[in-house]
């Protein structure tokens, strides 16, 4: 595609929209560098004095390295597990058409509309019985259960666009089912895998209610749990809270920037239509 | 198909067994620990789980618990604070459902006491009960006269007013009746001062605190509330609820713009920065006000419904209590901690100096209170107080009440309909 | 499953009975090995608690007490006979769903189209549009509340534009649109990513052929691009519908259901019933009803778009 005058105009418009889009971040960042009373009196202005001490204090209060580590472990392992189990299941279900697969698919998909609030009390009750409360492996298992429907749904849609001929030729070559899937099919699913990882990461990294209910030890706290301690019913400590928020979202932004290269590369390689 | 199901079931079982085993291990190890402490080895350390929602004091509370641990080497306390957007109640219910029950936790009293009573330890015979003020006993005392909780502190609210702005407008007498308040706001208006910072965006400010006034001004609030549930009393036609209209009209008529979008932070900021002369809030706003304006000169005046002498009273109550899980393995240690918090020198020092609480005990001298806390104390000493009644309302009614008041302020409904809505809410939720 | 295997077996009548059995077993095992893990976690974590929820919906449990009393259909009767608020919240959620789904998909798709051209800054822009997603629901609501109340007022005073001077969250209509705006602000970048992935899969030779045939941009879009990426639309619509229907965190922290309950979503209504009003039984009954309705809704949506996919 060529870069024409029209593209230039489009570019200017897009940049303007992007700036409007980012205004809330201006508020977040600017106010995270102000004292509490200054935030309340004038939220829009630049800080009269740039207070980086907010960040230093938040780092200490949150025990940030530990919270970061917990969030990271939970997010990474939940992601790996979800990608493995959902891609396998989705592929098999697509490649074995029939009533059973269809019913199963509807079951998975309809569970996506179960509001979390409905299952939360029975879930912790069951969790207590199974002994998976208050532990990081326990919450990862729960994320497997909650994440499967969406991940499977996305894979399911994508597998259908993968031509079956590739698999058939591999089958003739005598590949086992697992070998066939991991060596031939899974690499073809890369674009959707990246999408699944991005979506699950955003959800798990920012999730509040499930960790709140499951992780009770202070040493197991995730970043959102730790951040929420600045927001009470009556007093919202915006100075600390916003600094904590910036600290908490920076890793996700870096992560996204990193992955978006892969989205483009994965698609540009042209392995799929 | 059958085989497949069988496979699923067996996999489920396998997981169940594995998980079951691990949970069994956990249980047996914890019962071992219990066994040891029974055998009386003094170096056995027990851990108390302390679950609370007052985020404001979380850091100081942690400090205090450290000192407690230092004085009691065989007791460790794990503090967990849940506040903010999360519902403390939902988290607590989840804990009880999963079996990870805390030893000490918050309870609001009255209806909440009834709700949780089967889990609460009877504290009637604790040493601190003798020093507990009568007002502090009410919320956690059941029909049989047993006490199930220790009040965290006392709080009060009313119209906090800016003394300097009142002086500027030439108001010399503190208004204590509706007519005097009306005069005062007129004077403020003449001098170009906004009278009220009205925080009608927060349901608890209006649906709970403000609406408490006509409830608490009834001759016998508890009887009135019972009468409402039995159908012998109604909102429509009740003198104090009819008078309540004027309070709202005055506050809105002489208040800031956009009261319905004014949240707590905005409301307090308006008042603290001198943009409004009065605010309907409690002494808990003190710290925030001093943070914005360290030289604030302020005190409380009542929220008057009429011109009678009884109108000059401030609602003072127990915002929350500490309760103990009666099935706690460490019941004695939990009781010890509560007693230490209000009887030991260290505990008392934290209560008055670090938390800046108004204590609910007659053996603790309040100190370190700001102007608003002092003002509440003065009304208490003069016995010009009325109760907090919302803990006796049906669960969830306060948010519905707030919605009806908001609708009135937005001009969607007439005041008569507000009272009808109150009635409908009550009948529906009681 | 059984029927599939059966038809396949029928097609292959030459095989001996013994080997068909073997084949059948092998297929079964392989199916179980691939689908089993996902199904297992799903059943333990979601289905069993959900079934327990159904049980609670027939009880008067308050969420705390150790005694749970069976009340039959009492909770459901009560919801249908005496709970206007629940139906109001349904109405709000449905209206919100339509507005939010349309707007966020239009914006997301437009972004994807714009960023699929040869813009110099497209990587940067892609990030900019996507970034709102990194803030979780609760805090997002708090921040936007701050912006609607303070930020808009500040801009309004400077510019005197009436748009910014409105009490955005204090009026039923504007509060509704306020939530729609924030939802779209957050979610359209997410949709954009999915649409971009789909657009990049479109064969460029097809587009060039269309150009040579003299088709204008709009016709190309309508006749070639959209039909080709219909699966992406299915996914995006499904996602936004289920997210909009389940809206909770954002709604709770932005408006708290106010003013005067005009923006109370079903999820908040359920949550309050269960945890504020301490009627866990009724709350469960409501969520079962909610689940049924949403399930029907999304099934219809998926059926319609799938049908279109097939036609295309």
UniProtKB/TrEMBL annotation, chain C:
* Single biological process term from Gene Ontology: transmembrane transport
Q: What subcellular compartments does it reside in?
A: Cell membrane
The membrane-topology field of this record reads: Multi-pass membrane protein
| Keywords assigned | Cell membrane, Membrane, Transmembrane, Transmembrane helix, Transport
Short name of one Pfam family: BPD_transp_1
Provide the leader sequence positions.
none
- Enumerate the spans annotated as ABC transmembrane type-1 domain: 90-301
A single GO CC term, please?
Answer: plasma membrane
Spans through the membrane: 28-56, 96-118, 130-155, 175-198, 224-245, 287-304
Which branch of life, at top level? Bacteria
Chief location of this protein within or outside the cell? membrane
* Family per record: Belongs to the binding-protein-dependent transport system permease family.
Q: What is this protein called?
A: Sugar ABC transporter permease
Lineage at the top is: Bacteria, Bacillati, Bacillota, Bacilli, Bacillales
């Amino acid at each position: 595609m060529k870069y024409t005058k029209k593209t230039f105009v489009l570019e200017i418009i897009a940049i303007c929209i992007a700036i409007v889009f980012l205004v809330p971040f201006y508020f977040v960042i600017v106010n995270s560098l102000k004292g509490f009373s200054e935030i309340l009196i004038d939220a829009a202005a630049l800080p009269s004095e740039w207070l980086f001490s907010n960040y230093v204090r938040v780092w200490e209060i949150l025990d940030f390295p530990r919270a970061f580590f917990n969030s990271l472990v939970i997010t990474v392992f939940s992601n790996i597990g979800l990608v493995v189990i959902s891609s396998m299941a989705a592929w098999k279900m697509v490649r074995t058409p029939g009533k059973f697969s269809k019913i199963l698919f509807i079951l998975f998909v309809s569970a996506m509309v179960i509001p979390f609030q409905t299952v939360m009390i029975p879930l912790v009750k069951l969790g207590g019985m199974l002994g998976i409360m208050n532990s990081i492996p326990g919450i990862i298992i729960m994320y497997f259960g909650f994440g499967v429907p969406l991940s499977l749904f996305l894979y399911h849609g994508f597998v259908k666009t993968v031509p079956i001929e590739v698999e058939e030729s591999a089958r003739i070559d005598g590949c086992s089912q697992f070998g066939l899937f991991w060596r031939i099919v899974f690499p073809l699913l890369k674009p959707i895998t990246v999408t699944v990882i991005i979506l699950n990461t955003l959800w798990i990294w920012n999730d509040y209610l499930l960790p709140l209910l499951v992780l009770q030890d202070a040493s197991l706290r995730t970043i959102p749990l730790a951040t929420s301690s600045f927001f009470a019913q009556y007093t919202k400590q915006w100075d600390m809270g916003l600094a904590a928020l910036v600290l908490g979202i920076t890793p996700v932004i870096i992560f996204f920037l990193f992955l978006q290269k892969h989205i483009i590369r994965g698609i540009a390689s042209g392995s799929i239509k | 198909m059958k085989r497949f199901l069988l496979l699923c079931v067996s996999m489920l079982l396998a997981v169940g067994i594995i998980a079951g085993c691990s949970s069994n291990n956990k249980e047996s190890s914890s019962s071992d620990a219990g066994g040891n402490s029974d055998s009386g080895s003094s170096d056995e350390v027990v851990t108390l789980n302390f679950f609370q929602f007052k985020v404001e004091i979380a850091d100081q509370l942690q400090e205090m618990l450290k000192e407690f641990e230092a004085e009691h080497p065989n007791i460790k306390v794990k503090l967990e604070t849940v506040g903010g957007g999360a519902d403390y109640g939902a988290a607590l219910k989840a804990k009880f459902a999963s079996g990870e029950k805390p030893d000490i936790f918050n309870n609001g009293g009255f209806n909440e006491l009834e709700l949780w009573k089967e889990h609460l330890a009877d504290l009637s015979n604790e040493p601190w009960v003798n020093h507990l003020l009568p007002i502090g006993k009410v919320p956690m005392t059941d029909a049989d006269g047993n006490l199930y909780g220790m009040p965290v502190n006392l709080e009060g609210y009313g119209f906090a007013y800016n003394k300097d702005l009142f002086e500027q407008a030439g108001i010399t007498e503190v208004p204590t009746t509706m007519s005097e308040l009306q005069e005062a706001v007129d004077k403020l208006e003449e001098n170009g001062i906004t009278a009220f910072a009205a925080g009608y965006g927060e349901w608890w400010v209006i649906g709970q605190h403000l609406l408490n006034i006509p409830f608490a001004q009834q001759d016998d609030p508890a009887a009135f509330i019972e009468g409402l549930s039995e159908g012998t009393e109604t909102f429509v036609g009740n003198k104090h609820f009819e008078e309540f209209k004027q309070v709202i009209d005055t506050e809105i008529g002489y208040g800031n713009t956009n009261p319905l979008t004014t949240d707590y932070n905005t409301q307090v900021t308006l008042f603290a920065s001198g943009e409004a002369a009065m605010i309907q809030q409690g002494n808990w706003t003190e710290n925030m006000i001093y943070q914005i304006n360290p030289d604030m000169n302020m005190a409380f005046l009542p929220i008057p419904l009429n011109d009678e002498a009884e109108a000059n009273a401030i609602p003072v109550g127990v915002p929350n209590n500490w309760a103990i899980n009666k099935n706690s393995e460490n019941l004695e240690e939990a009781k010890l901690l509560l007693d230490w918090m209000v009887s030991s020198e260290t505990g008392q020092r934290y209560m008055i100096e670090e938390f800046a609480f108004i204590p609910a005990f007659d053996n603790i001298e309040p100190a370190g209170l700001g102007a608003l806390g002092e003002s509440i104390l003065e009304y208490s000493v003069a016995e010009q107080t009325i109760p907090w009644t919302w803990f006796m309302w049906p669960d969830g009614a306060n948010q519905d009440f707030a919605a009806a008041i908001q609708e009135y302020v937005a001009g969607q409904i007439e005041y008569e309909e507000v009272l009808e809505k109150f009635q409908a809410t009550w009948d529906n939720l009681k | 499953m059984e029927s599939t295997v059966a038809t396949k077996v029928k097609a292959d009548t030459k095989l001996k009975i013994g080997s068909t059995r073997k084949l059948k077993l092998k297929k079964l095992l392989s199916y179980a090995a691939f689908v089993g893990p996902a199904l297992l976690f799903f059943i333990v974590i979601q289905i069993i608690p959900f079934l327990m929820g159904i049980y609670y919906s027939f009880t008067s449990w308050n969420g705390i007490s150790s005694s749970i009393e069976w009340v039959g259909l009492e909770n459901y009767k009560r919801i249908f006979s005496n709970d206007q608020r629940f139906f109001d919240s349904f109405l709000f959620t449905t209206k919100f769903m339509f507005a939010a789904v349309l707007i966020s998909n239009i914006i997301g798709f437009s972004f994807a189209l714009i960023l699929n051209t040869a813009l110099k800054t497209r990587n940067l822009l892609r990030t900019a549009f996507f970034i709102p997603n990194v803030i979780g629901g609760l805090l997002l609501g708090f921040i936007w509340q701050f912006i609607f109340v303070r930020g808009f007022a500040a801009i309004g005073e400077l510019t005197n534009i009436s748009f910014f001077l409105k009490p955005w969250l204090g009026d039923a209509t504007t509060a509704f649109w306020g939530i729609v705006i924030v939802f779209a602000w957050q979610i359209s970048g997410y949709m954009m990513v999915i649409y971009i992935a789909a657009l990049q899969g479109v064969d460029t030779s097809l587009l060039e052929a269309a150009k040579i045939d003299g088709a204008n941009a709009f016709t190309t879009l309508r006749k070639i691009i959209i039909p080709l990426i219909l699966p992406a639309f299915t996914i995006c619509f499904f996602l936004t519908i289920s997210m909009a229907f389940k809206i909770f965190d954002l709604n709770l922290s932005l408006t708290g259901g106010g003013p005067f309950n005009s923006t109370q979503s079903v999820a908040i209504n359920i949550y309050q019933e269960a945890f504020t009003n301490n009627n866990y039984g009724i709350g469960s009954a409501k969520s079962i009803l909610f689940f049924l309705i949403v399930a029907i809704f999304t099934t219809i949506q998926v059926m319609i778009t799938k049908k279109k996919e097939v036609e295309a």
